[in-house]
Design a protein that fits this description.
4-stranded parallel beta sheet; alpha/beta; Rossmann fold; 43% helix; globular; Hect, E3 ligase catalytic domain fold
């Protein structure tokens, strides 16, 4: 007989950062064991406020991803889930949509009384929602008085059109084409913001401010693209066609702006979308993943930067394992650039000099990579973030509301037909989201083409990303004293540790995932 499954969740707020979570998780495990439930996953959030949004918490995103496969979600106490009634109600709606039950180990919310407690909490949530609705309704009225577009320049990719009190965004196709191209290069072809900005400048593409000035017939100011300019143009929710506003307590900017929501919590649309939801989410994930703070290690242009390591030994026999850096050296138009270990340079070097001609070792690594992986289908690992479950809850609620109103509409009338069309569209979307929500542990998706094809299309920065994705490691030993001064492939050891997502996994789970990956890649290559 199948045992009920449960996901354990615990959250630790910033106010109690010294407190450990282990005892609460163990308390939940004991409760689950007493009920005869099988614990399938444990998710935790550290230094996360209970008032924060569900989707902004890494641990809660794991819970949302597991909801379709769990019978219960268990926390030690109710306040571990959320200290915001609306956020807790959002979790309840997501659980309802996936037929899971929210419970607590202290007995306040148990399988026997869950529906009663939830109804009481829903009443409080309804009261808070009504107050927020009143504020947002007043804000919407203000927007109507000012017009859909609130003045100033439209976001890059749009221009403004329409009567004075009802201006809307319309797609500025030349600029929108640039955004779509850069998004594709960034997500699917290993592009970087720096390289893309440089290429836009080389092509003479005007940056946002000058593009708008040229469109309006005004004098240009000679601006250029910067990586931050391109980042802001791609990162903002405006590319979805949504009005945006500053997040309370933060400065207005593309990295912190949030969509303006209507009374139902849906983004207010000011025009058509330039990037669809999936593409924009992928762009934001790539940008977030590459963000680096001041003083952090920066990525250069060398193919093997942070991949090539020094295999020299010091006087005590310890291997250096320091990074090899590429020194740019061109003579009469020919490239003689070497990779060098700084620890072996000069009379105070810690070990013998370790220098190797860059183009030879790069060609060797490229050939080995393409030999092993070039014929494989290009796959992209997609981690679930729980967003599908939240969207599923919203769609299910809309369907329930429409279904309740249908009996009161004149059958066959225009309103009835429109409602039926909406029901059909929502049912289709519900099925799509339910299928997507079933992927609770991540999956491989075919990105199109082969690894070899993608390698040919990318520059060195993009190729380095491909090598890093497979955990490439290149160890170069110093040349043997007195050996002929030519490149010796035996000095170079090349290994691949596997995808980044695999390296932090439990060894047994990693091996199972590796087998699935090999089967997927093998099937695609046949």
């Amino acid at each position: 007989m199948r045992r009920p499954t449960v996901v354990i969740y615990d959250r630790l707020s910033r106010l109690f950062a010294d407190e450990a979570t282990d005892h609460r998780v163990e308390e939940c495990r004991r409760y689950a064991e007493s009920r005869g439930w099988e614990v399938v996953h444990v998710a935790t959030d550290h230094n996360v406020s209970g008032a924060s949004k569900l989707e902004d918490r890494p641990g809660m995103r794991e819970v949302l991803s597991w909801l379709p496969r769990a019978d219960y979600v268990l926390a030690a106490k109710l306040d571990r889930y959320a200290r915001s009634v609306l956020e807790f109600q959002k979790l309840l709606n997501a659980a309802k949509a996936t037929r899971a039950t929210i419970v607590t180990a202290d007995g306040l919310v148990s399988p026997e009384n869950a529906s009663l407690i939830i109804n009481v909490l829903a009443a409080f949530a309804e009261h808070e929602r009504e107050m927020i609705t009143a504020r947002i309704t007043a804000s919407k009225q203000h927007h109507r008085q000012k017009g859909n577009h609130l003045g100033g320049l439209a976001p890059y990719g749009y221009s403004v059109s329409g009567p004075v009190n009802a201006k809307r965004w319309v797609v500025d196709e030349p600029a929108a084409t640039i955004l779509r191209e850069c998004a594709d290069r960034l997500v699917n072809h290993g592009g970087s913001l720096t390289a893309l900005a440089r290429e836009l400048n080389e092509r003479g593409t005007l940056p946002p401010a000058d593009h708008a000035r040229q469109r309006d017939g005004r004098e240009l100011r000679g601006g250029t693209w910067h990586s931050t300019t391109l980042r802001d143009a791609l990162y903002t929710y405006a590319v979805r066609g949504w009005l945006v506003q500053a997040t309370p307590g933060t400065k207005r900017g593309a990295l912190t702006n949030q969509p303006v929501l209507d009374a139902e919590g849906n983004p207010l649309s000011a025009g058509p979308a330039i990037l669809d939801a999936e593409t924009h989410s992928a762009v934001r994930a790539v940008i977030d993943g590459k963000a680096k703070g001041r003083g952090s290690e920066r990525t250069g242009k060398a193919l093997l930067l942070h991949i090539a390591r020094c295999g020299a030994k010091d006087a005590k026999g310890a291997v250096c394992d320091g990074p090899l850096y590429k020194q740019r050296r061109t003579v009469d138009g020919k490239d003689y650039s070497p990779y060098v270990c700084r620890a072996g340079v000069g009379k105070h070097g810690k070990h013998a000099p370790n220098v190797v001609t860059a183009r030879y070792v790069e060609d060797l690594v490229s050939a080995e990579y393409l030999k092993r992986f070039g014929s494989f289908a290009l796959m992209r690992w997609v981690e679930p973030d729980g967003s599908a479950v939240l969207q599923l809850a919203d769609v299910t609620a809309q369907l329930d509301n429409l279904s309740a109103s249908l009996p009161h509409l004149p059958q066959g009338g225009r309103t009835w037909r429109l409602a039926m069309d909406q029901v059909a569209a929502l049912e289709t979307r519900e099925a799509q989201l339910r299928s997507e929500a079933e992927h609770a542990v991540g999956r491989w998706e075919d990105a199109g083409g082969t690894v070899g094809d993608e390698w040919e299309q990318r520059d060195d920065e993009g190729r380095r990303a491909l090598l890093a994705d497979l955990g490439a490691r290149v160890v170069v030993r110093p040349a043997t004293p007195g050996a002929p001064k030519r490149f010796d492939p035996e000095r170079v050891a090349i290994t691949f540790a596997g995808p980044a997502w695999r390296r932090d996994m439990d060894p047994a789970a990693a091996r199972l995932a590796e087998i699935e990956m090999e089967e997927a890649l093998g099937d695609a290559a046949m």
